[in-house]
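anyone seen this seq b4? input:
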Amino acid sequence: MTDLEVKRAVESELTWEPSVNAAGIGVSVQNGVVTLSGTTPSYLESWRAERAAARVQGVRSVANDIEVQLPRESERADTELTRAAASALEWSAWVPAGVKAKVERGWVTLEGKVDWAYQKRAAEKAVRDLMGVKGVINMVAVTPRVSVGDVQTAIQSALERSAQLDASRIKIEADGDRITLRGAVRSWNEKQSADYAAWSAPGVRYVDNQLTVDPALAA
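predicted toks r here
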């Protein structure tokens, strides 16, 4: 696909996504790299716009330069937002105790340690939807709880089970609790799926996703 075709496809996907007001979002594409600009009235809408763009065929990566401009009725004081974030983390069944949130000018920073990557993602999800959030910085650390000797095999099996991936094109390198993914995939969405599979393995603390996106593989 040409950059112009990708641009039109992303614009169509943003228009199709009901949770996004595409009229306020600009799209530019260079060598398959999509840059989103403009404004949204919430961080959640900005995040959903990024996800919508990422699932379009031909997209190699997405740079989200959207500025969150909260309407006056959505603005919250940092102290109020801190209490709301703490409550959201406490009430999430997926977030363990010990994950904390601090807020500065509407930006929520998450800190703490968890055993699994899905818990780190759950913490971000818990605060992403809160009114008044302008952005989320996820500093939660994943600490290994089991031996990572079989991590490489576990990830390979997960990739092979996925209907969205061609595992034969993906090489997995394990170095202690660090995983490196190499090879080529058909789309940015497929790259993210491989990343998710790697992070789902127990004991993984870092994933270096070096997979390249080659839309020609989809042909």
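The longest helix spans residues 3-16. The chain is about 35% helix and 25% strand. kinda curious what u guys think
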